[in-house]
Amino acid sequence: MSRYYRYRLPPWCRNWLIIIERCMLPILIVQCLRTLFFPTTLDVFLLGIFTGIYVAFYLEWI
């Protein structure tokens, strides 16, 4: 199998990936603070999802 290359995507799709990648850290920080002050099951679940997405962008899996 060939490796996934983000530069083979259409320009509009690459732009969305860049926008999502730039917005993930502030969203992750806000969700972490929200989970610390008002912990609910949904907040913990969302924090796990956002952390996974951020790590995937950081390790260039997406």
Notes on the protein architecture:
The chain is mainly alpha-helical. It has one domain. The chain has two helices and no strands. The longest helix is centred in the middle third of the chain and has 27 residues, at 11-37. The radius of gyration is 14 Å and the shape is elongated. It starts with 10 loop residues before the first helix and ends with a helix. Keywords: Membrane, Transmembrane, Transmembrane helix. The chain crosses the membrane at residues 36-59.
What's the order of the H and E elements?
A: HH
Structural class computed from helices and strand pairing: mainly alpha
Number of separate structural domains: 1
Bulk shape: elongated
Head-to-tail CA distance between termini: 16 Å
User: What is the average of the pLDDT values?
Assistant: 90
Number of strands: 0
Low-confidence stretches: none
Residues in helices, as a percent range:
over 70%
Portion in beta strands: under 5%
- Compute the CA-based radius of gyration: 14 Å
Number of helices: 2
Q: Specify the biggest β-sheet.
A: none
Summary keywords:
62 residues; mainly alpha; membrane; transmembrane helix; transmembrane
Secondary structure topology:
Blueprint: H1 11-37, H2 41-58
What is shown here, in short?
The chain has 62 residues and is mainly alpha-helical. The chain has 2 helices and no strands.
